[in-house]
Predict the structure.
Amino acid sequence: MLKAASTLGVIFFPAFDWAISRTHPEREERLLYTQDQFREEGLFDIDGISEHRPLFATDTDILRAHFCFPSVDAICTESHRVSAGGAIQAARLVMENETRRAFALVRPPGHHAMKVVHGNRGFCNINIEAVMIEWIREHYGRKRIAIVDTDCHHGDGTQDIYWHDPDVLFISLHQDGRTLYPGSGFPNENGGPRALGRTVNIPLPPRTSDAGYLHAIEQVVLPILADFQPDLVINSAGQDNHYSDPITNMQFSAQGYARLNELLKPDIAVLEGGYSIKGALPYVNLGICLAMAGCDYSAVREPDYNQAALAENAETMDYIRALSEEILEGYFNPEPGDFEKKGDWFIRERKIYYDTDGILEQQRERLKDCDQCRGLRLINTSSSRILPCLGVELPIDCCPACEREGYEAFHNTHDDYLVAQLLDQKNKRFEYRPQK
Amino acid sequence: MRIGIDIGGTHTDAVLIDGTRLVAAAKAPTLPDNLLASITGVLEAILAGQDPRRVRTLNLSTTLSTNAIVTGAIEPVGVLVVGGPGISPETYRIGDHYHLLPGSLDHLGNETLALDSEELDRAVDACLAAGVRSFAVAGKFSPRNPAHENTISERLKDRAEFVSTGHLVSGQLNFGRRIHTAYYNSAVWRTFRAFSAALGRSLKGFDLEAEVNILKADGGTMPLARALDTPVQSIFSGPAASVMGILATVPADTDALMLDIGGTTTDIALFADGQPLLEREGISIEERPTLVRAVHVESIGIGGDSQITVDNGTVRTGPQRLGPCLAAGGSTVALMDACNLLGLAEFGDTDRSRAGIDTLAAAHGLDSRELAQAAVDAAVAAIADRIEAMVARVNAKPVYTIHEILHDRLIAPQQVLVIGGPAAVFRDPLARRLGLPAVVPPLAGVANAVGAALTRTTSHLTLTADTSRNRVSVPMLGVYRTVKRGYTLDTAIDEARTLLAEDLERSGAAVPADQIQITQADAFNMVEGGYTLGANIRVVAQVQPAVIARLDADTSTARLAGPV
C-alpha cells in the first residue's frame, strides 16, 4: 500500500447543502466529483493522509481579521464560519504537529474579501486565509507568514488585509488584470508605506501553460521565499488556471498544479476558486493532495489532456522570462508607491464595488506615520446600503501614543458613526463599541 | 425455534432458542481440520430430546474463510484489473496472477480509453496456462459503468470456474478496496463451497430442514445460497456475533460500549442508540482494506494473560502475552495472577499466582499487593484511554453538510457491557475508572451463539442517477438502465426501497418494507454553462443489523445441555 512521505491532513468539506444560488458556480455540486475521485482512488486509505472535519469560526475569530459592518452576522452565514473553521482546523493540525501539512478543501472561498466587509465580492464574504492566519498568531504568537495565492484571479482581498503588515509576505500569481476580474494585481502594487515589497504581484498573460507558470514559481516565488524565510508557507490554492475552467483563459494542468505544490511545499493549502468541476477539480485536487503528501502523482491526468495543444507558446515564454526578472528585482529594490500624506497620516481613498451583492463602498483609510510603531489605522467607510462606520486598528507593536489615540477615536466619536469596531492586535481586543 | 452456532478459534458454541427462551446451549472444542465434526458435536448436544423439524432457522458464524486466509489455504486467483490514470493500480498488486489491462473510465463512467481486447486474451490465457480457475475482475469507476468488467467476465464465462466481478461485490467507490474484496472472495470460494456441501449433508442427518444463513461481519446474516457467491462477507463474523449477542441479552437502546475481554486482547465496540457502529468503508484483511461491511471493533493488547513487568519501579501490564498466566499453568506473571492475589478472582491455581507476584515484587523491592493493584490499575487505565480515544475519533468523523456540523449528535456511552472470561473481575474497576455503570450480561459465555441465532438478514444498495444523461445505476444488482427526464429524488428513493426489498425476497429473506432505511438521499443540481441540465442523485438503502428478539430476563435458568 502507499505511504505518504510527509503526513497530510485534508479537511474535505464540500458543503453539500449550500449554494450562492441554484446555478451559481459556487453551488452544492462543486466538490461532488472531487469526492467521487478521492473515494475511488482511495486517497484516505494512503498511510499518512487523513480526513478531518472543519471547526466553526466564532465572532472573535472573524473580528481578528476583518471590520464587518454593520455586524458579523450581517456579513457571514454559517457556511462562511464552517469554511473559515476548515482553514483553522488545517492550521491547528500543522501547528499541533498532528500532521506535517494540511489542505483545507473547503467552500465557500475567501480571497476577494478585504479588510472591511460590507457583503460578497467575487464569491467571497470573509477571507478564510486571513481568519486562519490571525487565529495562528493569536494562539502561537507572532510569525512570519508567506501567502502564495495561486488562484487565477488576483487575490485583492488578501492583498488588502496584509497591505501594511511587514510580517506577512503576499505573492499573487494570476491572469493579467487587464483581462480578468478583479482587474488589479499589477507589479507596482507592492505594499503600503510600512510594508514595502511585502506584496508581490505576478500578472501572467492569458493562455499561460505549465512551463510559463512553473518558470515564475522557480525564478520568482522560490527565490523570494528563500530571502523572506517564513515560518509558514500558505498556498491560497485556486484551481481556475486550469485549461478547462469556464471563467478564465489559462492553460494550466493537473500535472502543473501538482508540480507547483511539490516545488512550493506549502505547510497549509486552502482551496479558493476553480469552477471546472468535472474536468479539472477531481484531477487537480488529487494531484495537489498527492504532491503535498510526497506521493507519486505522475499518472494523474485529465481524460482530455493534450500535451501538444497545451505547450507554451515561445512568445509567451519570453514575456514571462522578462517579467520574472523585473519582478524579482522589484522585490529586492521596491519602488515606493505614490503615497498621499496629510500631516502625520498616510491617506488612501477608494471606492470598492461588491459585484455579487451590488454594493458600492466608499472608504477613507488613515495610517499614522509613527516612528515608535507601525502606526494606528483608522478606516471610515460607508456604502450604498449603510451610513458611515469606523474601524480602529492597533498594530501588534502599538506604541502608547497610538494606543491612546486609537481608544479615543473608538470611544469618543459616537455621533459620527453608525457602528465602530476595534481591532486591537496588541491587547487582543476585538469588539464593537456598545450602542448608546 | 432457531439455532445459532459460532465456530470460534478455540471453541464452537451452539444455542437452541424458542421465541425469547433459551432452550439449550452447548460448547465444544473447535477442530480446525474438521469443522463439521465440531458442528455435529454441538448440534447433537442442543438437539437432544428436541424435535429438529421445529427449527426454522439455523444461523452459522464461522472462521472458515478467515482461517483459510490466515493460514494461506487459499487458491490462486487471476486478478484482471482495468486501471487508467490516477494512483497506479500497481499499488494494489495482490496474488501471483495480477494483470493490468489498458482501458479507462472517468468519474462519470465515460469511457476514456477502450478496453484492450488482445491484452485481455493474453492475460486470461496466461492465467489458465498457470492452472488458475478462479478470477477477480475490477475496473476503476466500474460502479459508474460496468462495461469493461462485464466484457471481461463474459470472456471468462466458459473458461473459469468462479468469477468475482467488482461492481457486483460492492457498489461503493474505492478501486483498491474493490480489487482486494474481489480477490479474497475468489480466493476463499472453493473452501467455502466444500464446507457448504458438507454442512448440507450433515444437517440432513439431523433431520433439520431449517433455512441456513451465514453470519456476516456487519452482524447480520445472508442466506447460504448468497454466501456461495460472496463468501468474503463471512469473514470476521465472530466479533460481530458477540456484539449481536449483547443486544439479544441486555436492553441497550442507548449509546453503550461493549468490551470483550479475552486472554490476549480486549475488543471494544460502540453502540449508538443501541445500534452497533460499522466501519466507514469496510474491514481490512491482512492489512489490506476491503469493502466488506463490518462492525467497527478495536482491539487493545490487554487480557487475562497480559504479562506484568516492572520497569524502574513503574508497573506495566501488556501488551505482550507470553503464554497463559501462572494460575493456568503458564510461566509468566500475568494480569489474572494479580486479580487472584487481590481477591478479585479465584481462578485456577491461586497459590502459583501468589508465589509469582511475591517473587516479582521482591525483585523490585515492592509490596506484593501494591504491585498487583498497580498492574490492575494500569490495565484498566489502558482500556479506558483507548475507549476515550475511540469515542473522540468516532465523534470527529468527517461530515459533508453544514447541517451535520451544527446538529450532529455526539456519541456519549451511558453504560459498559462487559463479556469474556475475566468480565466479572473487571466489571467494578472499569465502572469506577469510566464513571459509567458496567453490566456483565447473563450467558456471556455463549453470547456469540445467541447473537448468531437471533440476528437477521442485512443488505444494502447504492443507487446513482444522472438525469442529464438519463441514466440510473444500481451496481450491486447489475442494474444499469435509462430513465425519463422527470426522474426525481423521491422516485429514486422509492426505486431503491423496492429493489432492495425484491432482492431480499429473491434470496429467500423477505424483510418488511418499514425495516428498510434510507441512509443517504441527495440530489445535486447539475449545471453547465449557467443552465440546469439535470440532477445527480445518490441514494443508499439498507437493512441494518438488528436482533429479532431479546431473550427473557431469566434465561440463565434455562437447561444447559452438553459440555458447557
Notes: Chain A has a mean pLDDT of 95. The longest helix of chain A spans residues 210-228.
